[in-house]
Amino acid sequence: MVNLKNEGIDIAITCTDFGKTRYFFETILGLDVVMEFKVDKCSANNLGLATEGFTQTRFALGNTKIKLLEFETKDVKSTNHHAGLTQGVRWITLYVSDICETYKTLVAKGYEFIGDIPTKPKGALVLKGPEGILIEFIGN
Questions:
Q1: Model-level pTM?
Q2: Sign (positive/negative) of CA torsion 13, 19, 21, 26?
Q3: Distance CA 56, CA 32 (A)
Q4: For residue 19, which of 111, 114, 130, 131 sits 20 to 30 Å off, Cα-Cα?
């Protein structure tokens, strides 16, 4: 077994539309940017992460960090050929206090949901977010 050092986890999202994705996490969800830095082409290549340099923007949500990757080139598929990736994460679950309020807030911002819409504060709600990621909200 691997002896993990902390309870946090970092999730990286390879962005094809960085501006739209950043807007969602920063403005719509209200997450704080905790770090932003560039990884140069040489380092990215040596680590086997990408063939091009990229900027990494990190948001904090408790012990979890969501990292958005903006590549210097718009050809994300060839940039990530080392790992055979085109885009990263497919599904994120976020916990909210009232699912009905979350629905109202996001609909007012122009977001559309897939699946059933809950009518009580507890329940689940899914929207297709930026980069095609399913964002599942669960009301407690």
A1: 0.78
A2: positive
A3: 14
A4: 114
